Structures are given as C-alpha cells and as structure tokens.
Amino acid sequence: MTVSPRPTADASSYEALRRQHILDLLARIPGSIRHVNWPVERIREERQQLLRSLVHVAKEKSAWHHERLKNVDADSITEADLGKLPVMTKADLMANFDQIITDKSLTLEKVNAHVSSLREDRYLLDNYHVIASGGTSGFRGVYVYNWDEWATCILSLRHAFLPVNPFLWRLLSFRPIGKIFVNSRTKKKKERTPQSKAGSVMVFADISSHMSYAIASSVGYAFIDQGYPATLSTREIVDRLNSAQPDSLSAYPSILHQLALEAKAGRLHITPKKISSGAEPLLPHIRDAVHDTWGLPVTNFWVTSEGGCLSWSCGKSEGMHLNEDLQIVEPVDENGRPVPLGVKSSKIYLTNLYNHTLPLIRYEITDQVTFLADEACACGSNLRRIGDIEGRLEDMFTYEGGTRVHPVVFDSAFEHYPNVIEYQVRQTEHGVAISLLTNGPVAVEQVERDVSEYLEKSGLHNPEVSVRIVDRIERTPGAAKLKRFVPLVTA
Ligand SMILES: [Zn+2]
After folding, report:
1. Can you tell me the distance from the alpha carbon of 108 to that of 114, in angstroms, rounded to the nearest whole number?
2. pLDDT tens-digit map of 332-351
3. What are the residues whose beta carbon lies below 5 Å from ligand 1 (ion)?
4. List of E strands, 408-459
C-alpha cells in the first residue's frame, strides 16, 4: 500500500488539502488500474499480505480486536482461516467504537460531533473523512478513513478511472475547480447555471456524510459537471436535465426509474451516452426500463459506507467485478454459513483490507449477493464476478397530485441528529408521522421544521409533520429488517 506524505502544516485550508489529495489520487491511478488486470496468483498473494497486515494492526492497536483475536496469529493467517474468526455487527462497532478505532485521538463523540457540524465536505483533524450511514437497518453507523484510505476508497470506483474513460483525462487536466454542488441548507455555494450544457450530471444524496456526496465533493469536481440533490422534486430534476443535456448521467436506481418514466411520458428529453447507478439495488425492471428508454446498459457500482466500492460492472459481460485486492467479501446464509457459487446469499461478511483506522473484519452487511461461475471476462480482468446486488428498494411516498418523495429526504433531515439511532417514517395523507428511537436529547420541534423544509423542497406543499420519541419501533412480524418507510395504503 502506498504511503503518501501527510498534508503539510501550512496546507491548512480545506481547499489546499483537497487539491493535495487529488494529486495523491492521480499518482495512484496507474497502480490501481494495474491491479484490475493482475493474474489470479498475484491477487491471492496481495489479499494474504493485506489480511495479515490488517490483523496485525487490529490486534496491536485496537483493544476490542486484541481480545477477540487473541488466538489468531497475524503472521500465519490465511484466507482459509477467516471462517474461524468472530463476526462483527454494526451494533458491535457502535457499542465499542472507542476500543476499535486505532487512532486514539479519535472517539465516537468527536466523530459524531464532526458529522453533526458538517454542512459540506470537510476533513476531521485535517486527515480523516467520516461517513455516516443509516443503511437498510435504519440504525446509524459511522466509518472513518484516513488520508491514504480515503484515496484508496475513491479509487475503488475502478470503472470511473479505467484509462479509456474520459473522466481520467479530465482529472489529469486538473482543470480549475469550481464549486458545483449547491448545499441547499446553507446556500453558500453558487451552482453553475443549469442552462449550460453539461458533460456529466450526478444526482446525489444531499447529505455531507454520505459516501456519494463526500466522494463527489472531495474529488468529483474534476469529473462531474453538475450535481443535483436527490431531495429535489422529480419535476425540478427533469427541468434541469432538459437544460443540461448531459452525455453522462449517474443516479440512484430508483431515480433512474423515475427519469425513464418521465422520458416515456414525453417530459424528459435527453440523449445520454453513459448511465451509471449505485447506492441502491439495481433491480431488473429498472435496468430494462433504462435500456428501453435510452438503449443503454447501466454501469452499476456496489458502494458501501463500510468499504467504498466493492464491485463494478465493466460492461463486457454479466455482473460486476469484485475489488478482490481491496476487500474480502464472504457470501453467507442467514446462519452465517458460506453459500456456494450461483446461490444467492442472505448477507455478506466484509473484511476491508485497506482500512487500518477502523478495522472491519468479517463485518456483517445485509446485502444479498450471488457469486458467478469463475469464467474469464472479455474485459481481461481476473477479478471475480458477482451478479447485481439484490434486495428491495425502499418505497417512495406518492401524494395526491403525483408528488413523489424519495426516502433520501429523511436521511438528509436526520444527518445532524446523532442521538437519533433509529427511525420509522409513516406516510400520512398530507405529510408524515415519524417515530424516533433516541439515546440522548433531540429537539423534536426542530426535527419537524427540518423535515417540513425537505418535504417542501421535494414538492409537497404545506406538509403536516409529526415527530414522537418512542421506546421501541415495531417491526413487521416475520421481517428481519425494520421497515423504515411505510407508505399510505389507500382503499
Ligand atoms: Zn469484465
């Protein structure tokens, strides 16, 4: 793993740090791309070496891992031994965060305070990026990447950096960096005028601690022309896209689906040459709708807060390539037993080989994955392939008059409330009723105002929002996961 020079003391401003980070990133692109075409043996050697290094650091610098891995020899462990190691969950991580994180200048309190203060992308202690995620469980986790790890995390989006990709040349040209993203909360930044023709547009989460926002903000200006918050109304996104006429469009699958429907209905008139998606399952009917509408395949990225991009589609054959040189993904059934090739897993255990700041070893993520048969890919990469991630999309809320509200609206609203550990949003006729599970004080009226503001932006006028703090959130009988968004069922 490359070790970059830490930022110099005089590079104190965010902008200076960020520029230095982009330069570091540029230096690493050729090496990162070379890994994509490594022979199988080289990939295996790399994984073994990185696994040993990770276990070594975890045992030495994390009291929690030290205890749990006391019988594991970091110098001789192989991937075949991984199944004997204990599994960790998000609840484990959050309950033992200060004993897991290896930089003792960081605590959960400091990390949470940083997330709460974010209004746009920022470094913590001029070194760290912090990603917060409710994930599909609704239970918040926070993940920390140091300078080097953040660069690796961004480079895990391999397909975006392949040499044939024009993005690379945009990045290499290091063109003057303009602020593209509007922070709709502060309105400090000026967006490029939507009337200008855009090469690439990204519809992203309007959440400073979200992986897509943080990546797009920290280096994205180099390769994205315009970014629109997913919290905007569909109509507003359509208007902006009609003006921008992008060649490349990147968005949540659920938003791509909406946009395909808008195009079919004759309201959206764009002719993109490339469409990519991530952050949600790319369901077959969405892939088909995009193909029927624009005649294009969707380049899919499986991106997690815990490990960055775990897999990406090369477009040459079915499925996505796993970044086997950066992470180990174990597909398992609901009891944690390995599932064979071709069988859909209930969840995965992720071992993030490159993050030594917050060692995640066999970390449970409830994404369902199918490993494909080990066949050579036409693109030449030996990285193993998996099928598109399965799962279900959270329901959008549809209101009278056709206004639709995406669930990211609520993630955005709760970003600045670290004491909210779980929530459930029920659609009502003219708004929402929200239940909060908390572990500290939360200003309920302020939450109501924030949520109302986001709903207004999504096109729902004068929304009625009620928030209450509860002792527990009812789960649907038989369902393992909390249903976070419950649409109104009309008779
Ligand atoms: Zn391929």
Report:
1. 10
2. 998 999 999 999 998 999 99
3. 314, 316, 377, 379, 381
4. 420-427, 431-438
